[in-house]
Amino acid sequence: MRDRMLGKDDKSYVMYIDCERSWFQHNSVHERRIEGGIQEGSTVGVLLDLDRRSLRFLVNNMPQGSVAFNNLTGVFYPAVSVNRGVSLTLNSGIEPPELDY
């Protein structure tokens, strides 16, 4: 199953996050580990900017590091993966935050 995880192929862009840290992964390349994770009640945001062809992740409306991925092309399909015992509420269509690039 590990070979089917998000971020293992060239078509998925992922932020893995737990209670201590986060990191980004694409095409099996794991990079930019950031200290500080999420707690119960945290909000995780995903900002896909098609004009800038970039993908950013936010935790509690604060950028989780810099722009995670640039120069994106193609068609995008959102996906969420969680570990067992984890619950989440998914909100779509929320007004994106104003961010400095």
UniProtKB/TrEMBL annotation:
A Gene Ontology cellular-component term: neuron projection
Domain B30.2/SPRY residues, every copy: 1-97
Superkingdom assignment: Eukaryota
Stored PROSITE patterns: B302_SPRY
One of the GO biological process terms: axon guidance
InterPro entries, per database record: B30.2/SPRY, B30.2/SPRY_sf, ConA-like_dom_sf, E3_ligase_FN3/SPRY, SPRY_dom
Protein name as annotated: B30.2/SPRY domain-containing protein
